[in-house]
Design a protein that fits this description.
The protein is of the alpha/beta class. About 45% of the residues lie in helices and about 15% in strands.
């Protein structure tokens, strides 16, 4: 796995939430023998042994069940330990979701049905926002975070909270603002997923450029992938609609920019996009 990535021209890598425990010895062996550095781990990594496939939301800190919240905490602390073990400085976090009808998919279906921004589309969007705003999980999540923040600080790890697509996910933009205004410690920051932000932009929930500019002071890393309108993400950069040329220059150069691509992306397309990326953003 790592050798294939290395051969494509990448010398830094994020270990994702599909990495099984059985792969770990081989990963450490490869890293010891090659000039590749791990920038980040995506919670949960390694994958909980009882989970059979990639599942970053298999245990949620927003669950109504205390046992699930405790498992989410346990495997988060374990991910922090593994990040420290391979010299990574960041852990990418999902912070759960709330029970809500899938309004996001409903809006996407409306776009494909030719109803983009008509009265029905706007009505669904407003209902979704109202329903989401009525669900209060903020205090529960901040309480759940405290042991993870302490553990990360002791290990020299920064937790990057990722922006996501759905109405049901936490944090919303408003909750992001509150989180970073109340937790000023630099042990936690913002992880910008370009594809997720672009889809929310396409759904008219945010302005991608304005949101990124607002979050840059707290940003600790990002996921790079392109989007084909309205919501086909994890495409190779420059194959979709994201205006990387106007967005990337605003980012601090020392932050990791992790290419998070679909398994269907071809080797040739990745190599060509990487060469173009290095010309555009040397």
């Amino acid at each position: 796995m790592l050798n294939e990535i290395f051969a494509l021209g990448f010398d830094r890598v994020e270990l994702g939430h599909g990495i099984r425990q059985s792969l770990w010895e081989g990963i450490e062996s490869f890293l010891a023998d090659h000039p590749m550095r791990v920038t980040s781990l995506h919670n949960f990594c390694p994958l909980p042994i009882e989970i059979q496939s990639s599942a970053p939301d298999c245990y949620q800190c927003t669950s109504s069940r205390a046992a699930e919240r405790e498992l989410a905490r346990r495997y988060t602390l374990q991910t922090i330990d593994y990040a420290h073990r391979v010299g990574a400085k960041r852990v990418v976090m999902h912070l759960g979701s709330v029970p809500l009808r899938d309004y996001t998919e409903e809006l996407i279906r409306s776009i494909f049905a030719g109803r983009y921004l008509d009265r029905r589309y706007v009505r669904i969007k407003l209902i979704a926002i109202q329903k989401r705003e009525a669900v209060g999980v903020y205090d529960q999540i901040v309480e759940w975070l405290q042991p993870a923040l302490s553990h990360a600080k002791a290990a020299g790890i920064v937790l990057g909270v990722e922006n996501r697509i759905g109405f049901e996910t936490f944090p919303s933009e408003r909750e992001f603002r509150r989180l970073f205004s109340e937790i000023k410690d630099d042990v936690i920051g913002y992880w910008h997923d370009f594809g997720h932000a672009q889809i929310r932009h396409n759904l008219t929930l945010i302005d991608h450029a304005e949101w990124l500019a607002e979050m840059v002071p707290r940003q600790v890393g990002c996921h790079i992938h392109d989007v084909q309108f309205p919501a086909r993400d994890h495409r190779v950069p420059f194959s979709g609609m994201i205006d990387f040329a106007s967005l990337i220059p605003s980012l601090p150069v020392e932050q990791p920019m992790v290419w998070e691509l679909s398994p269907s992306a071809s080797k040739d397309d990745i190599i060509a996009a990487l060469a173009h990326w290095k010309l555009r953003f040397p």
